[in-house]
Amino acid sequence: MDDGGKIGIANIFKNFSKLGAEPFLFSFKDDEIQPSAIEEAQTYGKVYIYPHIPKNSLHGALLAFTTNKSLYICKHYSQKALQFLENLCQQENFDIIHCDHSAMARLGVELGRKFAIPVGLRLHNIEHLIWERYANQLKPINPVRLFATQQANALKKAEIELMNDCDVCFTITPEEELYAKSLAPNANFVLASIGVDHQKFSFVPMSKREQRTLVIATTYKWQPNVDGLLWFIENVMSLVKKELSGVKLNLYGKGLPEELKKFSHLGVCPVGYVPDIVPHLQKATLYIAPLFVGAGIRIKILEAMATGLPVVATSIAADGIPASKAEGLIKADTAEETAKNIICLLKNHQMRAILGESAANFVQKNFNWENNVIKMIQEYHNILSNKRHNTT
After folding, report:
1. Which pTM value belongs to this model?
2. How many distinct structural domains can be found in the chain?
3. Of 33, 35, 302, 322, which residue is least crowded by CB atoms under 10 Å?
4. Reduced to 3 states, what is the DSSP secondary structure of residue 342?
């Protein structure tokens, strides 16, 4: 569980099982998977790891552009995978097909039609918004902007079709639910947000933490994460270092690019992947989230807040989290504003302590996996009940 998508899927799978369902997990394999992770997953239900790698390629991009289809949707679709799933549906008596991320919904919809099984789609993000925001930050003369804009439109069309084809769509923020309803007013939407494993991401008071350690945990496979971090290092860290000595920024996550490893003079420590991020969050001083492209909710921010870390984030990174500065989430979109907030917090231990405790309390109160999975199960029971009523 080392990125937001995996964290969400794993916790939904676990809670389906804990709440009395019998879940089957089907997943593509794009990285090596630790046997211990599969063994843990198998304690909650049956697991099928399919060897399809949904990677980008120049050929795929050109084909998507010339046919005006969504590369994001097409690269996750495979006739062989569909056949595998059809065979599975013939062997098992499934009540529901639950798809996480828009990319998997095309497979789910086709299976649902063939076997008369209701289909639910969890909109981990409304994906075309990410493409739109990425395109808008590029210069007009950049050819990538033309491709990204075209792909955003193609993906928007595909997502609207999928929303209408599914029996229910679960959104994770009220804002995205309203937007989705404006796109597909006849579709069925249910708000079921995300959560945090509060037993794992437990609170540690500021008195037991380091005094000047900034931290971020992210995936570096997604370029906007790298771009935002480069902006922060080059524009914010230099301002912070001028005011305070001994400040360091620890970078955690898989696939750290070389370009992030050359800023030791600014206090940047490229740690990379760690098996368990929790102890590193529990000893840090502040969490930073510099992101200018995105949608949905950043689970990593909530996990950091749950441990008692105040967070300084851009508005895009903080999107979907209804916390105020008093609740430990400080929003800043310019280098000067970001540096000012960080310097103020690093200088004021008492303020950090108050905001860290407020952040943990906020997440404890508002983000719980079990409560949100209960909403999903209740809606699935409603759909199945209506299905049985309509067939009798």
Report:
1. 0.88
2. 2
3. 35
4. helix
Check which CATH number belongs to the domain holding 188 and give it: 3.40.50.2000
User: What residue numbers bound the domain in which 287 lies?
Assistant: 206-366
Please answer whether residues 243 and 266 qualify as being in contact, where contact means their C-beta atoms are separated by less than 8 angstroms. Answer: no
Total Cβ atoms within 10 A of residue 369: 21
Report the relative pairing of strands 286-289 and 311-313 from DSSP bridges: parallel
HSE-CB of 93 using CA atoms within 13 angstroms = 0
Is 242 inside any structural domain? yes
Pick from 231, 224, 246: which is nearest to 294 by CA? Answer: 224
* Whether residue 176 sits in one domain with residue 41: yes
Cβ atoms of residues 245 and 267 within 8 Å? no
Q: Is 324 exposed, middle or buried (0-12, 13-18, 19+ CB in 10 A)?
A: exposed
Q: Are residues 236 and 179 in the same domain?
A: no
pLDDT digits (tens, 9 = 90+) for 132-180: 988 988 888 899 999 999 999 999 999 999 999 999 999 999 999 999 9
